Amino acid sequence: MSRRLEILRRATEVFQRQGFAGTSIEDIGRAVGIKREGIYYYFRSKEEMLLEIILPQSNSLLLTMRSIMRSNTSATEKLQSALQNHLDSFNPAYLEMIVALREGHSFKNDDKLRELRRIWRQYSDLWVALVEEGQQRGEFRSGYNPQIVAYGILGMCNWLSRWYDPAKGVALDEIIRTYLDMVLHGMALPQAATATTERAWEPG
After folding, report:
1. 129 with 69: CB under 8 angstroms?
2. Cα-based torsion angle of the residue sequence 100, 104, 109, 115 in order, rounded to the nearest 10 degrees
3. What is the mean pLDDT of residues 15-37?
4. Which one of 20, 87, 170, 175 has the fewest beta carbons within 10 angstroms of its own beta carbon?
5. Phi first, then psi: what are they for 182, rounded to 5°?
6. Residue 202: CA atoms inside 13 Å, Cβ hemisphere, count?
């Protein structure tokens, strides 16, 4: 591993453990085993390091999502592939994704930040387009706002950054299957869902 990549890997671990705001260049230097001047030889700031951690993963998500949307498959199959693509990003690079999802708002303006925002905006737009496609094909319910649905799914997926650890507990494949089933079918059994809906709309 090159020294530059080693610095990025150690920085990711420190950001994940301490948070971006709570991490100093000295902290990263200690994790790598070099002085802060050695860090500055490779990077101008911790913001630059964080962007270099986030950008490749974010761009990979976008490129794969574009490929999914171009595929000649049903909207339901595209949804499954999109969930797989997004959640697979937590394994093995889950530390980078944790940093990306927690700390993406922490930068000062610069070209890399604008590129990151552009990537995330395009990625989110593709999720909205996927929901719209499913509605138009009659595969998804048409009464929902596509943006609310898309952002809701992404929010559910991104919350993994708060609790998921690939070394413990639930396998990622099980999470993907569960999320897909929840999105497509919900949690309530048909009878319970009907009764709850009727009660919710009864006059008070």
Report:
1. yes
2. 50
3. 90
4. 170
5. -60, -45
6. 7
